[in-house]
Amino acid sequence: MPELPEVEVVRAGLSPAVSGAVITAVEVFDERSLKRHSPLEGAFDALLEGRTILGAGRRGKFLWFPLGDSAGPAGAQALVTHLGMSGQVLLRTPGVEEDGLLRIRLHIEHPVQGEFWVNFVDQRIFGSMAVDRLVPTADGQPGGYFGEVLASGASAASDDSAASAALVPSQVAHIARDPLDPAFDEALFFAALGRKRTGIKRALLDQTLISGIGNIYADEALWAARLHYEHPADRLTRPRMRELLAEVRLVLGKALAEGGTSFDAQYVNVNGASGCFSHSLNAYGQQGKPCPRCGTPLVREAFMNRSSHLCPRCQRRPRAPRATPAPAPPAT
DNA sequence: TAACTAACCTGGGGGC
DNA sequence: TGCCCCCAGGTTAGTT
């Protein structure tokens, strides 16, 4: 299940390969993988063919590739990709091998690396590709994370400032910045969290509050911060919020360093290799095993049509808020 | 307006 | 061996 670290691994793998390359042809094998593409923008393949890819950006779990040339009256555009639960973006040598469940193929011509394919493979079709217009960001900061290469101005596509400009695809604009984004505003996040009258895990999964966190890393961060998933977000003190955010960053950063989490073939990098973070999980999928901290068997509980993994001793269920005393009855 | 729920989707695994 | 059912979960439209 691709979350922020997995998507970032894909972005980092794609960026040097596609930046400065031209899309020469597009093949769509399953129209359902275009569910986020609006026909009002134009035909998906026609919008892409002949366009140059300027770079590879990411906000949370959304990836996008700003496009150069012939933007037309609609202004700057980008190819937006979301991996959903089972999406993969694979770099392939033409004709060498076929990927099962292939939904979309981009034929790419790079001035240095020559011709190759970008295959979008998706088993459950929760993922998608779309061409979307770029709109200005609300805070005037770059739309997302474009990596160290482009940020330092050394990318092959860095001549075109459209790649890293303060623009974001319109369908990504409502998504909050992720905690690894240099422009992530901690004060804004803490204030928004303090207004949420809901459980802390539901808040962490709310991509309009903080993006990039899914079920796996929410469970891991809550275990690390010793917080029960139902702990009311608005009852967290600032120090506890800071502690939780630090654990979120630690978990995401560690997973990123290990190439992401893979349980099966559902998540792979652009070369088809799996990540190693599943060996480092403390809570997610560890039900029945002893808590690495206190030895109490970890449990799995139903939560939001999915599951939550926690230590029943380290992560105590919050007590119900004390009832407000009823006003005294008027004296008679 | 905020919080919450259900639907989308399909390969794999378990039970019979 | 084959069939059926359940499970996984990110996003979003619809409901409360």
TrEMBL record:
Span of domain FPG-type: 282-316
Entry's EC annotation? 3.2.2.23, 4.2.99.18
Q: Which cofactor does it need?
A: Zn(2+)
Q: Which domain of life is it from?
A: Bacteria
Q: Which reaction does it catalyse?
A: 2'-deoxyribonucleotide-(2'-deoxyribose 5'-phosphate)-2'-deoxyribonucleotide-DNA = a 3'-end 2'-deoxyribonucleotide-(2,3-dehydro-2,3-deoxyribose 5'-phosphate)-DNA + a 5'-end 5'-phospho-2'-deoxyribonucleoside-DNA + H(+); Hydrolysis of DNA containing ring-opened 7-methylguanine residues, releasing 2,6-diamino-4-hydroxy-5-(N-methyl)formamidopyrimidine
**Could you state a single Gene Ontology molecular function term?**
8-oxo-7,8-dihydroguanine DNA N-glycosylase activity
Q: Name one GO biological process term.
A: response to oxidative stress
Where does the Formamidopyrimidine-DNA glycosylase catalytic domain lie? 2-127
Keyword list (alphabetical) reads: DNA damage, DNA repair, DNA-binding, Glycosidase, Hydrolase, Lyase, Metal-binding, Multifunctional enzyme, Zinc, Zinc-finger
PROSITE patterns linked? FPG_CAT, ZF_FPG_1, ZF_FPG_2
Spans traversing the lipid bilayer? none
The record's annotation in Pfam families points to: Fapy_DNA_glyco, H2TH, zf-FPG_IleRS
**CDD domains from the xrefs?**
EcFpg-like_N
Task: Give the similarity note.
Answer: Belongs to the FPG family.
Q: How does it assemble?
A: Monomer.
Which protein, by its recorded name, is this? Bifunctional DNA-formamidopyrimidine glycosylase/DNA-(Apurinic or apyrimidinic site) lyase
User: Which lineage is the organism of this entry classified under, starting from the top rank?
Assistant: Bacteria, Bacillati, Actinomycetota, Actinomycetes, Micrococcales
* Gene name tied to this protein: mutM
